[in-house]
Amino acid sequence: MQDRFQGLERRLAAVTYAKEELVAPEDTAYRPVHPAIAQNMALWNELIAPPPKKPAPPKPKARPDLLKRLQGVTASARNQVKLGGNIHAVMIRSAQNQNGRWMYVGDEVNGLVISEITPEAVVFMLEQQGKKYTVELPRK
């Protein structure tokens, strides 16, 4: 390894260089041309990139169609479980379950969560992107 290093040192020592100086010819007339170039702003447009355009703000998403999700779902007005005067469960029928199923607050139907059961309706809720959407399904 030492031999290779010494060989490289010898070859580098043998390299010579000449200093070159570039001199403009005396007959070049820069002074009359300079103002015309400096004042022509269109010449500099390509050198300076325009600032990037701000992206358009995203369009707000439309409110989800909760009634469409509850299409074919019915809540029974008669079949309910009461405890202490409060309704705790109600019979929900859907296309998937024609006979119905007892559903409680917190249960999910077609992606919607039951948030409240009242004598007149069942309130469903959907939480999406930090927003809460609710819809009432009348009891029949």
Describe this structure in words.
The protein is an alpha+beta fold. It has a domain at 66-138: SH3 type barrels. The protein is 19% helix and 33% strand. It has three helices and seven strands; from the N terminus they run αααβββββββ. A hairpin with a 2-residue loop joins strand 1 (74-83) and strand 2. The chain is elongated. The model has no long low-confidence stretch (mean pLDDT 88).
Task: Output the keywords.
140 residues, alpha+beta, four-stranded antiparallel beta sheet, 33% strand, elongated
Give a quick precis of the structure.
This protein has 140 residues and is an alpha+beta fold. Helices cover 19% and strands 33% of the residues.
Low-confidence segments, given as residue ranges, are none
* CATH architecture term of the domain at 66-138: Roll
- What is the helical fraction, as a range of percent? 10-25%
Strand content: 25-35%
Could you spell the SSE succession in H and E letters? Answer: HHHEEEEEEE
Structural class: alpha+beta
Largest sheet: 4 strands, antiparallel
Taken from the alpha-carbon principal axes, the silhouette is elongated
Spatial order of the strands forming the largest sheet: 4-5-6-7
Distance between the termini: 95 Å
Number of DSSP strand runs: 7
CATH topology of the domain at 66-138: SH3 type barrels
Radius of gyration over alpha carbons?
Answer: 41 Å
Mean pLDDT: 88
User: Number of helix segments?
Assistant: 3
The CATH class of the domain at 66-138 turns out to be Mainly Beta
